[in-house]
Specification:
- There is one protein chain.
- With 255 residues, the chain is of the alpha/beta class.
- Helices cover 36% and strands 25% of the residues.
- It has 8 helices and 10 strands.
- The strands form 2 sheets. The chain has a 6-stranded mixed sheet, sandwiched between helices.
- A hairpin with a 2-residue loop joins strand 4 and strand 5.
- The protein starts with 5 loop residues before the first strand and ends with a helix.
């Protein structure tokens, strides 16, 4: 795994919403570095700023202070069009809901970002899509509509879509929040596989069993990183011990 090279850096990051009276500061002075090959989980109580942090780091929202560097580029310097192109080519996204187009099959939903990224390379895009369907063991549902598959299968398809353009970072926002426990395990096994193969992941989650898959957990309180826990690489045979360690740490944070 290629580690040690910073892919994403935030310095003194702030986000204030001025649409409220008085204005609401959601992020306050966050410093964070994500290296290539990291799996970082972001935890904290409801309203602590977890999703806002992920949206700012991925350029879906603009911070009101501080800076974010992605692959050496300052995101706040980019136009909306440049930012959209960067997200398409260099970032993958997995949300709580799949947000697939209902008029396309599962396979075509996965294929679409690759075709948008390189319209003249359809053959390569289709080969990459089929490779991912096979890798995540959902080739058999490729031709199905999105209402014809299980939630776990749909989230595995979401991971395929996130990976189809070979992004530098995958951002996951509560990727198992709408799933039962068996489907949660299914999806987290898939994300752990992405990380094991060298992928870089930043994941927001409220679920300690999911956060235990990460090699670093950061804890937010009132929009500030108050602590971080290094767990090291995921080892399935030590899952219970690892989760117990995380739960003890989270209790110390008041979680």
């Amino acid at each position: 795994m290629d580690t040690g090279t910073a892919v994403l850096t935030a310095a003194d990051l702030e986000k204030t919403f001025y649409s409220t009276d008085p204005p609401t500061q959601v992020l306050s002075g966050i410093d964070l570095t994500v290296n290539r090959g990291d799996f970082v989980a972001v935890m904290g109580a409801s309203g602590s700023g977890k999703s806002t942090l992920l949206y700012c780091l991925s350029g879906m929202d603009r911070p009101t202070g501080g800076g974010i560097w992605f692959g050496g580029r300052e995101l706040t310097d980019l136009s909306d069009r440049e930012m959209s192109r960067l997200r398409l080519l260099q970032m993958g996204f997995v949300f709580q809901q799949a947000y697939f187009l209902s008029n396309l099959s599962v396979r075509d939903n996965i294929l679409l970002p690759a075709l948008k990224a390189a319209p003249k390379e359809r053959g390569a895009a289709e080969a990459r899509t089929d490779e991912l369907l096979e890798r995540f063991e959902i080739t058999h549902i490729g031709g199905h509509g999105i209402t014809q598959v299980s939630g776990g299968q749909l989230q595995r398809a979401s991971i395929c879509r996130a990976l189809v353009t070979r992004p530098s970072v995958v951002f996951a926002d509560e990727p198992t929040g709408a799933l039962n426990s068996s489907m949660t395990t299914e999806v987290m096994d898939a994300l752990s596989g992405v990380h094991r193969d060298g992928g870089t992941i930043v994941m927001v989650t409220h679920d300690p069993s999911c956060a235990a898959r990460a090699d670093r957990v950061i804890y937010l309180r009132d929009g500030t990183v108050v602590d971080a826990l290094d767990l090291g690489l995921w080892e399935p045979d030590r899952a219970a011990e690892r989760e117990d360690r995380l739960l003890g740490w989270l209790r110390g944070q008041g979680f």
